Amino acid sequence: MKKILFGFLAVTMLTLVGCHKDNNEKEDPIAERTVLIYMAAQNNLTYWSTSGYRYADEDLLEMKEAIANLGDNHLVVYVDKAKDAAAKYDDYKPYLLHYRKGELRDSIPMDSTAIPCDPATMRTVIKKAFSDFPAKDYGLVLWGHATGWLIRTDTIANSAARRRAYGGTMYNGTNQGSGNLWMNIPTLAKVLKEVPHLKFIFADCCNMMCAENAYELKDVCDYLIGSPAEIPGPGAPYDIVVPAMMEKETFYQSICDYYADYYDEEVPMAAVKSSEMASLAAQTKTTLQTMDLPEYFTSTELKNQRLIYYLDHNLYDINHFFMTYTTEAEYNSWKQAYDKAVVYKRMATRWDTMNLVNFRDFDVTEENFGGMSMFIPQEGLQRTDNQTIKKMGWYYAAGYNTIKW
User: Fold this and answer.
1) Which of 88, 145, 279, 326 measures 20 to 30 Å from 180, CA to CA?
2) Residue 257 within a domain
3) How far apart are CA 77 and CA 120, in angstroms?
């Protein structure tokens, strides 16, 4: 299942030699699409010491393999890797790569002090990528670590940072962990409201496909694509996924299919149509108000129902929850709204996990798998997730507050 890493020294050499178009060169006509891959790799994805993999370099090579199949589109890659603890590689300073028509057009040095999960950094990078390489529409790939919508208190001494939903940046710039600096999803949505509207966001990171995220990002993109579960360290097979991202209409289906097929259906995938998230939230609110639900579930109750969960016992499959706790008529009404929102999905019965998911706890079937998770308030979380969920727009739009969740 692991991809073979080869020739990553070529990537280093490539990025050290900047190339820029001559000012007198005639500009190409506007492209059909510009896709920015935002690589937040100031963490162990630069070098995963337990396995010896260099995932960032591996993916950069795959992207280079894909450029012959870009069509009339721009591929822009923001690369921000961690320092190599052994000082063997000296390519950690951020840079921006631009590919078009089968070749590298630009390699642009970026701010060496930047932190990829800093909203100012992301805003600057996206605006530059889309203004320098304009197109008829735009796509964004979020590359890095993620924890769904979850917010955690940081444990690093003398640091004001919080562990958040996306980014995973090591505060000291090394590659010795998954990161302590993160970006909340509401913050991400605020940044993306300041840049051109996105045709899609493809989250190549763990647990991003949850109702909370899809609702928060509904106004900044047409489609959100990703997995509700943990994904393998190597992430997407970019040599085949990059061309898929350039497809005019079928991109979201192709991305899901290529990802799922590459990992032999051991990564669940889904695509959400953002314009339907408000209707899904409204239907969810209506349905919740008809259900006889406790203020807080117990972990035993949920486990006894054998609900599908991801990451830990806070991210439950939304379709399986409503299938389990509603009447047939209630579920059918809710499912109509859900099927309009989740327009494509690929089931998996197992996926990568850091030993937090016990697959003996549940069974995954085509009927109960929904492809998107949701938070369920539970006893023992009154001071943590039961409170922080109130920072997400989904909490109010889906009516959690009206049933005292």
Assistant:
1) 88
2) yes
3) 17
Last residue of a domain, one of 275, 292, 321: 275
Structure pTM? 0.91
DSSP 330-384: HHHHHHHHHHHHEEEEE--S----SS---GGG----TTT--S-EE---BTT-TTT
Torsion of CA 190, 163, 346, 235, to 10 degrees: 100
* pLDDT for position 108: 97
d(CA 93, CA 312): 35
Write the CB contacts of 102 (distance below 8 Å, at least 6 apart in sequence). Answer: 67, 68, 70
The closest alpha carbon to 347, from 330, 337, 332, 362, belongs to: 362
Digit-coded pLDDT (tens) for 149-208: 977 654 433 344 444 689 888 766 667 677 778 899 999 999 999 999 999 999 999 999
Cβ atoms of 35 and 245 closer than 8 Å:
yes
Are 308 and 175 members of one domain? Answer: no
Domain count, the chain: 2
